[in-house]
Design brief:
six-stranded mixed beta sheet; six-stranded antiparallel beta sheet
C-alpha cells in the first residue's frame, strides 16, 4: 500500500511509461521493472529501473511481563522479494526469532531487508516487579495464622486465602502516593504484588490498608527490587511510629477497630458496628472486625480495647521538609457532641467531634484544654496524624464541672482557632415522688429467683440527671431494687425500678427509694410457690418428685400449663412410626422434638405447641400421657387459677392429645375424666401446651 514516485528528466516533448502513463512522473504502489520512453519529436530514448518493496512486521503485540520472564519475538517481511530476507534486531541478533528476558521496560525493533530495500518495526515490552509483604491483623490472627475470612464470607473462596488488602507506595520526594494496588493475602500473612519496573531501584514507603484496620506504613522508605520481602510481624519498629501491637509471643500485629477508616479507633466507630450487629448482618463487611462473617458481640472486644487505648494511624507524609500541621477550615456546623455534662458530677463518656478540611497530613501532639466559664473540665485530643483531605478531631471531655451553665474550650491547632462550647446541666431534683400510685409488673415467690419483676413510680422532676440506685428489701429480705441512672423529664414522668434476687420467705418486701431530694417507700407481696401459682407464662401444673426425669434434689422444677387450649388438631402422620416417644414424666419435650423432626406438617398438635409464643415464652411442648395424668390430678388448683384471670380452664368433657405414640396409626389421648385411650392419629382433639421450669 506504500506509494513511490519515479521522475523522468525534464525537457522532453513526450513521455510514455510501461504502465501507459504519459506524465513526466509516475506514482506507483506496485513493485517490479518500470521504464519510460522519452522523445523530442526527432528521436527517442528509454530507461528502466527495478522497484523493490518490502514491509517489516513484528508479530507480537505490545505486552507486559514479570521481570526476567522469557518472551520470544518474531519478525516477518512481505512484498516483492527478489533476494532472501535478512533480519537485524536492536539487540544485534540477526535471526528471525529472538528470546529476551527484560528486567525493565524495553522497546525492541527489527530491520528486515531483501538486499535491495529494508523496513523496520517496533514492539514495547513492559515489566512488572514482584514485591512480597508479610503482615498479621490483630483480631483476624489466631493460632499462628490469619483466618480464612473470604471463605468464611462466601463459602467458596480458597480456604488458604485471608482477605483483600490495598498496598500503596509513597514517594517522600514528590510528597505523593504514586501507586496503589489491591491484592489478596494468604492465611500465612503473605501478600504478593506486582509493580511497574519504573519503580524498581527507588525507595518508597509502603502502606497497608484493610477493612476495619488501622492504616499502617513501613518505618522507613524501602528500596524496591524484584522479589524483596518486607515483614511487619517481627518487631514494632517495622511500622511507622512503632504502630504495631505485640500478641504476647513476640509476633507483631496491625491494629483493628477502625470501622469508619478515619485513622482513629474511637467512639465514632461504634455506630456502624451497633447498626450492623443489631441487624444480625452476615457476610463480607467492614464491621466484621474478627473475620467470622457474622457481626455480633464477638466484634466488640477489639474495638473496646483499642478505643480505650486511643489507637491511631501514623503516616510518613512530609511537607516542605517537615511534618507540616495545617488545617484549611473547621466545620463548626458539623460538630457532634456525645454524652451530657452535669454540675457537680464527674463526667463519663462525653466527647466532641469537630470536622476539618485539608489537614495536609501533619502530625500533632496530645492537646489538653481547660474550660472557662463553667470550670473544672478538660478537653483532650489524642496526638495523631491529620488526614490529607477531610477528617475529624475527637476531643474527650473529662472532669467535674463546678456549676451548671456554659463551658468553653479555646482550640488552637493547625493555624486555626475554634471555641468549643458545651452546656452543663443541673443535677436531678424531684419535687414529688408518689409511692402510693405505683404500678407493679411480675410476681414474687418465696425461694424463687425474681424474673421480669418491676415497679413504676410517678414523679415530677427538673430534667436533671441521676445516678443508678440499688436498695435492698426489708421485711422479706433477699431482694434488690435497682433504678438505672438516666435523666429526669422536665415535669412529670415515671421511674422504673427493676427487682431482682430471691425472696427469703412469704410476706411483704419493702423498698425505700431516695432520689433528687425526695424519698418514698413501696412494698411488694411475696407469695408462696405452689400448684396453681402463675409463673413464667402460665400456671404451675406439677412439681417434679423424686424419680421424675428433671427432678433435682434441693431445687424446685416442674411443668407450667399454658393459659389456653388449641382446638381441633390432628396428631399427624398417620401410618408413620415415630418410634422414639415415651410416656414418662419429663419426656414431653423430647417427644415433641422427635415428632416434629419426623412429621413435617405445620398444623399437627406437636408443631402447634413447639412454635407457640405465649406470654413471652417460646419453649412450649406437647405433654406426654403421664404428664397429662399428673396435671389432671392437680386440676382443681390449676382451673381455679385459670378461671380467676379469665383464662381457659380444662374442659371435663374434652379429649387432649399427648405426645406419646402407641403405634404407626395411633397415639395416646387423655380424656379429662381421668382416663386414657389410644386413637387414630388423623382424629382431631384439643391440645394444651406445657413448658418446663
Amino acid at each position: 500500500g506504500t506509494s513511490y514516485t519515479l521522475n523522468a528528466d525534464s525537457g522532453y516533448a513526450s513521455y510514455l511509461w510501461n504502465t501507459g502513463s504519459t506524465a513526466m512522473s509516475l506514482n506507483t504502489t506496485t513493485a517490479g521493472w518500470k521504464n519510460c520512453t522519452v522523445s523530442n519529436g526527432l528521436c527517442s530514448s528509454k530507461d528502466s529501473v527495478l522497484l523493490s518493496m518490502i514491509h517489516a512486521n513484528i508479530i507480537n503485540n505490545d505486552s507486559t511481563i514479570v521481570a526476567g520472564t522469557p518472551i520470544t519475538l518474531r519478525a516477518t517481511g512481505t512484498g516483492i522479494i527478489s533476494n532472501p530476507l535478512t533480519y537485524l534486531w536492536s539487540s544485534g541478533a540477526n535471526t528471525q526469532n529472538i528470546t529476551v528476558s527484560p528486567t525493565q521496560k524495553t522497546t525492541y525493533y527489527c530491520t528486515v531487508s531483501n538486499g535491495v530495500s529494508s523496513c523496520a518495526d517496533t514492539v514495547k515490552i513492559g515489566v512488572l516487579f514482584t514485591i512480597n509483604l508479610k503482615m498479621y491483623f490483630e483480631a483476624f490472627y489466631e493460632n499462628g495464622s490469619l483466618k480464612s475470612s473470604l471463605y468464611n464470607a462466601d463459602g467458596s473462596s480458597d480456604i488458604g486465602l485471608f482477605d483483600t488488602v490495598q498496598i500503596m507506595l509513597y514517594d517522600s520526594m514528590s510528597n505523593a502516593i504514586v501507586y496503589t494496588i489491591k491484592s489478596i493475602a494468604d492465611t500465612g500473612g503473605v501478600c504478593q504484588i506486582m509493580i511497574p519496573s519504573a519503580y524498581a531501584g527507588s525507595r518508597y514507603y509502603i502502606g497497608v490498608q484493610h477493612r476495619g484496620s488501622i492504616e499502617t506504613w513501613t518505618n522507613s522508605s524501602v528500596l524496591l527490587n524484584n522479589g524483596i520481602l518486607y515483614n511487619f510481624t517481627t518487631a514494632a519498629s517495622k511500622a511507622y511510629g512503632d504502630n504495631l501491637v505485640n500478641d504476647g509471643t513476640g509476633i507483631y500485629l496491625i491494629y483493628n477497630g477502625d470501622v469508619n477508616q478515619d485513622g482513629s479507633v474511637d467512639f465514632n466507630d461504634y455506630p456502624d458496628l451497633d447498626i450492623s450487629s443489631n441487624n444480625g448482618d452476615l457476610g463480607y463487611l467492614p464491621t466484621d472486625l474478627n473475620g467470622d462473617a457474622s457481626v455480633d458481640f464477638g466484634d466488640y472486644p477489639i474495638l473496646d480495647i483499642n478505643s480505650n487505648n486511643g489507637v491511631i494511624a501514623f503516616s510518613p507524609f512530609i511537607y516542605n521538609g517537615t511534618q507540616a500541621l495545617n488545617i484549611s477550615t473547621f466545620d463548626s456546623l458539623g460538630i457532634i457532641n456525645t454524652g451530657k455534662l452535669y454540675a457537680g458530677m464527674q463526667v463519663t463518656n462525653a466527647s466532641t467531634s469537630i470536622p476539618y478540611t485539608l489537614g495536609y497530613g501533619g502530625t500533632y501532639p496530645t492537646l489538653s484544654i481547660n474550660s472557662t466559664g463553667v470550670t473544672g473540665l478538660t478537653a483532650t485530643l489524642a496526638g495523631r496524624t491529620l488526614m490529607n483531605s477531610s477528617g475529624v478531631l475527637n476531643f474527650i471531655i473529662t472532669g467535674t464541672p463546678n456549676s451548671n451553665g456554659m463551658a468553653s474550650f479555646t482550640i488552637n491547632i493547625g493555624g486555626k482557632t475554634l471555641v468549643l462550647k458545651r452546656n452543663v446541666l443541673a443535677l436531678a431534683v424531684i419535687s414529688s415522688l408518689n409511692c402510693n400510685a405505683v404500678n407493679h409488673s411480675g410476681n414474687l415467690y418465696a425461694g424463687f429467683t425474681a424474673t421480669s419483676v418491676s415497679t413504676s413510680i410517678p414523679y415530677i422532676g427538673n430534667g436533671g440527671i441521676y445516678n443508678s440506685i440499688s436498695v435492698n428489701s426489708t421485711g422479706v429480705t433477699g431482694l434488690t431494687a435497682t433504678l438505672t441512672g438516666d435523666t429526669l423529664n422536665n415535669g412529670s414522668g415515671t421511674l422504673t425500678v427493676n427487682i431482682a434476687g430471691t425472696p427469703s420467705s412469704i410476706g411483704m418486701a419493702s423498698f425505700t427509694i431516695t432520689i433528687g431530694g425526695a424519698t418514698c417507700t413501696f412494698t411488694r407481696t411475696v407469695n408462696a410457690f405452689a400448684i396453681g401459682t402463675w409463673y413464667q407464662g402460665g400456671v404451675v401444673g406439677y412439681i417434679y418428685q423424686p424419680g421424675d426425669m428433671g427432678y433435682v434434689a434441693g431445687q424446685v422444677h416442674g411443668l407450667i400449663v399454658a393459659p389456653t387450649n388449641f382446638g381441633g388438631k390432628q396428631w399427624g402422620c398417620n401410618g408413620t412410626i415415630i418410634g422414639t416417644t415415651s410416656s414418662a414424666i419429663g419426656t414431653g419435650l423430647a417427644n415433641t422434638n422427635s415428632i416434629t423432626a419426623n412429621c413435617l406438617i405445620d398444623s399437627i398438635a406437636a408443631k402447634i405447641c413447639q412454635k407457640s409464643f405465649l406470654n413471652g415464652y417460646n419453649d412450649w411442648f406437647l405433654p406426654s400421657i403421664n404428664e397429662l395424668q399428673v396435671i389432671y390430678n392437680n386440676r382443681i388448683a390449676i382451673n381455679n387459677s385459670l378461671s380467676s384471670t379469665g383464662s381457659t380452664i380444662f374442659n371435663y368433657n374434652t379429649w387432649y392429645w399427648s405426645s406419646t405414640e402407641y403405634n404407626d396409626t395411633n397415639a395416646w389421648v387423655f380424656f379429662y375424666d381421668g382416663s386414657a385411650y389410644y386413637y387414630n392419629k388423623y382424629f382431631s382433639f384439643y391440645v394444651r401446651a406445657v413448658r418446663a421450669f
